[in-house]
Amino acid sequence: MPKQISNTRTSMSTSNRSSSPSNVNTSVMNENEVKFKIASSYCKLKETREALIEMEGIPAKARNLQMNLLLGRLYRITKHNRSAIACYKDCLRHCPYIFEAITALAELGCSAKDIVSLFPQTPMRSGRPLSDCLDSSRWLQRYVEAFCCIASNDYTGGLEVFTELLQRFPNNVHILLEVAKVEAVIGKNDDAIMNFEKARSIDPYVVTYMDEPEVSVALSVLWETKDDRRALTYAEKSIQVDERHVPGYIVKGYLLLATNRPEAAVAAFRGAQELRPDLRSYQGLVRSYLALSKLKEALSAARDFVKAMPHSAKATKLVGDVYASHSGSRDKAKKYYESALRLEPGFLEAALALAELHKVEGRLDDALSLLSRYLKDCTDDSLHVKLAQVYATKNMLQAALSHYQSALRLNPQNEAAKKGLERLEKQMKGLDPDAPEDDEENDVDDADIDQDD
Fold first, then answer.
1. What is the pLDDT of residue 218?
2. Which fold has domain 32-119+138-151?
3. What Gene3D superfamilies does the annotation carry (predicted)?
4. How far apart are CA 250 and CA 451, in angstroms?
5. Does the structure show a pLDDT above 90 at 215?
6. Is this prediction's pTM over 0.85?
7. Is the dihedral of CA 27, 33, 37, 39 positive or negative?
């Protein structure tokens, strides 16, 4: 109990008053260690406020590296960012190899130059500064630059630096994992899988970043196809276990969207953004606002995404999605989709969105010309579905049939292909696909009811 602990501390300090000065110093040091261990225990119990009180009771000059790290984490959790930055900076002044501190400072908005300036500059025995002796290729400084790029959403720049570091350290598991993580974020899934597998071949027990959804989120995704309510329960459980678990908020947001609760989805995506803004949280937030018909808020969120990632085709495409949702601003949507394709010519999602815009406005030949460019190198079922829809609209039913069948061969569970094929078969039989189906059983039941009456 806190009262007993405080009494114990008093007796510790009292018993040492008659001791030598060195014993007094030892007792003070021990008391700080006790506070640190109490704070660590509070952290395990998720009692952040109590842990912070204990840690703030340790004088700044008495804090060692572990203490500064823990205090930095606590300040981040309680959103005292300036205090967190000060703690992490103290960590790097002690030792430049504290990667947790480097990552945290980058995420808190510090520049690479500011972080590198913290590294100790004590001359070595050779007379050269430590920064010159770290490595001839300045690998640590490049490492800092990579994390600052990623923290500012410049994933391409970060990936370039990490790839450079990987050439310097080809079998380094840590760098392999960082490269794979960034590749997964920007949609290079095949490359990400290859690098994750390479990391596993070096260390078969590593699962870092490969289990990002973790148990609760994985269960949530599993149950999404069976029971939305149970899926949502698991997503919420992941947040209860770790209130800073970004994937939990994102999965929760998309589940709320799927169950037609866009207002609650906005709160979930906002929670993810406060912790770590990224592509998924921005996309979810925009879709939630569109579901609420809040075009102004959706456009504001999409533009914030473009500011955060000015060279991102996905961010540019998201602004186009907002404009495309309103018939009066489709010309603006077209410009943004075309801009996204200039930034990333192979960006299929932007091509599909632009083709849909062409189809809606009757430019069917333009849609077919655009989509046909991707057929050679793409094996995506959604491309075949979109081609089938355009061909069906153009009344080229045999071509539409061929593409629906191709889509289902690639993905037998594609619901859009199933529904499109069912509709197309009615058209090919000369039936109206929009006509309501006659239900013979209901007619019989109605007749029986009339006889009873």
1. 64
2. 1.25.40
3. Tetratricopeptide repeat domain (1.25.40.10)
4. 56
5. no
6. no
7. positive
Three-class SS of the chain? CHHHHHHHHHHHHHHCCCCCHHHHHHHHHHHHHHHHHHHHHHHHCCCHHHHHHHHHCCCHHHCCHHHHHHHHHHHHHCCCHHHHHHHHHHHHHHCCCCHHHHHHHHHCCCCHHHHHCCCCCCECCCCCEHHHHCCCCCHHHHHHHHHHHHHCCCHHHHHHHHHHHHHHCCCCHHHHHHHHHHHHHCCCHHHHHHHHHHHHHHCCCCCCCCCCCHHHHHHHHHHHCCCHHHHHHHHHHHHHHCCCCHHHHHHHHHHHHHCCCHHHHHHHHHHHHHHCCCHHHHHHHHHHHHHCCCHHHHHHHHHHHHHHCCCCHHHHHHHHHHHHCCHHHHHHHHHHHHHHHHHCCCCHHHHHHHHHHHHHCCCHHHHHHHHHCCCCCCCCHHHHHHHHHHHHHCCCHHHHHHHHHHHHHHCCCCHHHHHHHHHHHHHHCCCCCCCCCCCHHHHHHHHHHHHHC
The residue length of the chain stands at 453
Q: What is the mean pLDDT of residues 32-48?
A: 93
Q: 185: burial class by Cβ within 10 Å (0-12, 13-18, 19+)? A: middle
Report yes or no: 277 and 285 within 8 Å, Cβ to Cβ: no
H/E segment holding residue 219: helix 214-224
pLDDT tens digits, one per residue of 309-340: 888 888 999 999 999 998 889 999 999 999 99
Domain ranges of the chain: 32-119+138-151
